[in-house]
């Protein structure tokens, strides 16, 4: 099971407050195919849930059964999904590669 990214984890805290540890655990237990970007699926769950525990349960169930449809519901199905993630979660922390000596 893939680890949740830092920016998804931050969004979980923002959206779910004291329930964040349970939400994080649920996302980490979500089966995600190795050929699929886990952050994209995790973010789709959060975007669809909109901070609501009932909607979260539905989104998690949807992700487990038909994650492609969930991506569509979250607005992450098209080619610009990375830009949408950056808009929703902030840009990923990309560390510059140190120069070679």
Order of helices and strands, N to C?
HHHHH
Instruction: Tell me the number of structural domains.
Output: 1
As residue ranges, the low-confidence spans are none
Largest sheet: none
| Structural class label | mainly alpha
Distance between the termini: 37 Å
Shape: globular
Q: Helical segment tally? A: 5
- Percent of residues in helices: 55-70%
Radius of gyration (CA) equals: 14 Å
Percentage of residues in strands: under 5%
Number of strands: 0
The overall average pLDDT, rounded, is 90
Written description of the protein model:
The chain has 101 residues and is mainly α. It has one domain. It is built from 5 helices and no strands. It starts with 5 loop residues before the first helix and ends in a 12-residue tail after the last helix. 26% of the residues are buried.
Secondary structure blueprint with pairings:
Elements: H1 6-16, H2 20-29, H3 38-49, H4 53-74, H5 81-89
Summarize the structure.
This protein is mainly alpha-helical. It is built from 5 helices and no strands.
Identify the notable features of this structure and list them briefly.
single chain, 101 residues, mainly alpha, 5 helices
């Amino acid at each position: 099971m893939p680890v949740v990214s830092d920016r998804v984890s931050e969004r979980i805290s923002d959206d779910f407050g004291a329930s964040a540890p349970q939400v994080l655990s649920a996302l980490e237990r979500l089966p995600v195919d190795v050929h699929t970007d886990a952050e994209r699926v995790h973010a789709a769950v959060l975007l669809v849930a909109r901070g609501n525990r009932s909607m979260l349960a539905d989104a998690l169930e949807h992700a487990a059964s038909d994650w492609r449809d969930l991506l569509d519901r979250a607005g992450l199905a098209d080619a610009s999904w990375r830009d949408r993630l950056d808009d929703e979660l902030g840009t990923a922390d990309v560390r510059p590669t140190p120069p070679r000596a």
